[in-house]
Design a protein that fits this description.
Elements: H1 2-44, E1 50-57, E2 64-65, E3 71-83, H2 92-108, H3 132-141, H4 150-160, H5 169-184, E4 193-199, H6 201-209, E5 217-227, H7 234-237, E6 240-242, H8 246-252, E7 265-267, H9 270-274, H10 276-279, E8 284-291, E9 294-302, E10 309-312, H11 316-336, E11 346-352, E12 357-364, H12 369-374, H13 376-380, H14 403-413, E13 422-424, E14 427-430, E15 433-436, E16 442-444, H15 446-452, H16 455-465, H17 467-476, H18 497-502, H19 511-515, H20 526-537, E17 541-543, E18 548-552, E19 559-562, E20 567-570, H21 576-591, E21 609-613, E22 616-617, E23 620-621, E24 623-629, E25 636-642, H22 652-662, H23 667-674
Helix pairs in contact: 2-5, 11-22, 14-16, 14-17, 14-21, 15-21, 22-23
């Protein structure tokens, strides 16, 4: 019995061990199988490579409008051709093929592309003239030494970007130029490259149809700068263009905007440049997620804010009227006076005497801003240098219009009174030199001397004043330095030993007498002389002239700022009533002198105050007039001049008429209306 129980016990123990081994084996096999399955699953999962890039959403640039809200420079929604780094081939050969493919399409549609490389487009390659800074930049970008030639630069681009011999010489230059432009504009995941701007819908359609064969090429819909009225103040408005250098880029970052990209369009001249910080908006941003080389998401993270709208003090219709007056007067002179056959150039400036707001500013010859941007070289080569703004930068002797300043110096300094008399017998002897007057005026006081423009009265007065006193009053009126117009203006210079030394001329004591009548080397701008007239009209208060009346938000529903009158200087602060009454009387007398009926300034319903000048110039003589109206309680002051011309005073009546047409509620407007002249 015991034996049987022992056998049963061993059998059970053996069976348990066998089952335990089998269970262990099954568990081991299971774990091994699971391990293999998990390992296989892990092996099959793809490697994820993901990057997120920020890209700029450009803000619309602020518009520039006239005083009535008429757009001069604005924006339109248009199409720009871009290349995006995320989709552009990394392989140089493939990228070159894309560039050449899109260039050929642009050529077929008569579009240009952005290529500012300072190297000629044809062989033998040479650096373009007057682009020293750009030449230095390309050598630095390509890591070439300072002695590198244009050929060296092209060869380096061809080598760096593997531009093969399957391309012609011309095609190699095209690809090299665009490749350099990409380098210059910091083409990257964050910076788009703008290849061509303002593409029409037909070309946009063609590009979109071919996009699959042109990796990275795309069309973006953006605000594009437009010239709505290119005839209004083209010099003052200026234009936009690309950033040309790192130095320019660094300076832009100092204006309060830190989000510039090298591909941006920025102001290059005039108000577009000088008001860049105001006109430029604040860019938005979007995030682009690239997963394993494919763009997987795009989302806007910050909306752009448009730039401010600048409103000018100028009325576009009045501006165009002033331009016509100047042009027609020059045409009249050329047709009727052989001595004026070359009278093609001149300027008119019209100011609001209350604060020297510029109401209009004509220069001749001029250009249309749109034409300048389309054919810069053609405009630059036109006769008589139309790129010079003669109103703000033309430098001229003012002639007898300057006598108003000499009179101010004499009356305010006490060297003369309003009743002081000098004798004019046509000739005047000064330190052994004889100077002449145009008349023989006998005994004459200051008001009459201004009316008839007696030289000898002012020769005598200059001897009493001395040079230093005369210079003090010239500076008080704003001569000899820029006035600070927002678009920029020239300062000219004054007749003094320092000026003569700078010009390489010998100073003689007799220059004092010539300076006192606006000759010698006194050089002024028409804007400065219009400011002189305004200062006289305001009895010595000189305001800074300005073009901007204020700023608005982009929709012009909220005014953000307004320009307040800026009093810069007061001439004769303790003696104004005495000084300016005599000058005003002399200028009213000058306006009342006989002129042909169509130009006559009598019987307008108000008095006009003017002073004329016929300064010597390289052209023989120029013609000047300054003045203000009405003579009592003035509204406007003006300066008009013509190079090599005559009778600038003949333009005054029509200048006032144009003002009346555009400001019929003014006193001048009401006076013209009362005469049935509106």
């Amino acid at each position: 019995m015991k034996e049987i129980l022992r056998q049963i016990s061993e059998f059970l123990r053996s069976s348990f061990l066998i089952l335990l081994v089998l269970a262990a084996s099954v568990l081991g096999v299971y774990r091994l199988a699971m391990l293999q399955i998990v390992t296989a699953e892990e092996t099959q999962q793809p490697i994820i490579n993901q990057s997120v890039y920020k890209q700029v959403i450009p803000a619309s640039r602020g518009e520039i409008v006239d005083t009535a809200g008429r757009t001069i420079v604005g924006n339109k929604i248009g199409y720009n051709l871009i290349i995006e780094k995320a989709y552009f081939p990394a392989d140089n050969a493939a990228g070159n093929a894309v560039i050449m493919r899109i260039v050929k399409l642009l050529e077929e549609e008569n579009y240009s592309w952005n290529d500012t490389m300072p190297i000629s487009k044809t062989t033998p390659y040479s650096f373009e003239p007057d682009r020293e800074n750009d030449v230095s930049e390309i050598k630095k970008k390509l890591r070439l030494n300072q002695y590198a030639t244009a050929e060296n630069c092209i060869d380096k681009l061809i080598a760096d970007y593997e531009i093969g011999d399957e391309y012609s010489t011309r095609e190699k230059r095209i690809i090299a130029g665009i490749r350099y432009e990409m380098l210059l504009r910091d083409f990257s995941m964050s910076n788009l490259f703008y290849l061509s701007n303002d593409i029409d819908l037909k070309t946009v359609t063609r590009i979109k149809e071919l996009r699959l064969t042109m990796g990275g090429v795309n069309i973006v819909e953006e605000a594009i700068r437009t010239i709505e009225n290119g005839n209004v103040l083209p010099h003052e408005i200026g234009y936009v263009g690309p950033i040309y250098s790192r130095d320019e880029y660094s300076k832009l970052l100092l204006n309060g905007h830190s989000d510039y990209a090298l591909s941006d369009q920025v102001g290059k001249s005039g108000l577009e440049m000088n008001c860049e910080a105001t006109l430029r908006g604040y860019n938005g941003t979007k995030e682009i997620t690239v997963t394993n080389g494919e763009v997987t998401s795009v989302k806007t993270t910050q909306e752009p804010v448009a730039g401010q709208t600048i409103q000018l003090t100028v009325n576009s219709l009045l501006q165009e009227g002033l331009q016509n007056i100047l042009d027609q007067h020059c045409q009249l002179l050329r047709k009727t006076d052989a001595e004026c056959r070359n009278a093609y150039c001149g300027a008119i400036v019209l100011l609001d005497t209350r604060d020297n707001a510029v109401l209009g500013m004509a220069t001749l010859p001029t250009y249309n801003l749109r034409e300048l941007l389309e054919n810069y070289e053609d405009v630059a080569k036109m006769d008589n240098h139309p790129l010079i703004n003669r109103a703000t930068d033309g430098l001229y002797r003012p002639g007898s219009t300057f006598k108003t300043i000499t009179a101010t110096a004499g009356l305010d300094s006490g060297k003369i009174s309003g009743n002081t008399v000098f004798h004019c017998a046509h000739d005047y002897l000064f330190y052994g030199h004889t100077f002449h007057c145009t008349g023989n005026h006998q005994d004459i006081a200051v008001s009459r001397a201004l009316t008839v423009s007696c030289n000898i009265f002012f020769y005598e007065l200059s001897a009493r004043l001395g040079l230093d006193t005369l210079l003090d009053y010239e500076r008080a009126y704003g001569l000899g330095s820029p006035l600070g117009l927002e678009s920029g203006d020239s300062g000219g210079y004054l007749a003094c030993p320092e000026t003569f030394e700078n010009l390489g001329l010998q100073w003689y004591i007799g220059e004092l007498t010539q300076a006192a009548i606006g000759q010698s080397e006194v050089q002024v701008t028409p804007l400065q002389m219009a400011t002189v007239a305004s200062t006289i009209a305001n009895e010595g208060k000189r305001y800074r002239p300005h073009l901007i009346s204020g700023t608005w938000n982009s929709t012009m529903t909220e005014q953000l700022s307004s320009k307040e009158p800026e009093l810069v200087y007061t001439v004769a602060p303790n003696n104004a009533a005495n000084v300016y009454s005599y000058i005003r009387d002399g200028m009213i007398g000058a306006a009342q002198t006989a002129m042909p009926l169509e130009y006559d300034l009598n019987n307008l319903g108000f008095d006009v105050a003017i002073k004329t000048g016929t300064p010597q110039s390289p052209r023989g003589t120029d013609t000047f007039v300054i003045g203000y109206a009405p003579a009592q309680n003035p509204e406007v002051s003006f300066c008009a001049m013509v190079e090599g011309g005559k009778n600038a005073k003949w333009m005054v009546k029509e200048i006032l008429h144009q003002y009346a047409l555009n400001y019929p509620q003014s006193r001048i407007g009401q006076a013209f209306a009362a005469r049935g002249a509106l």
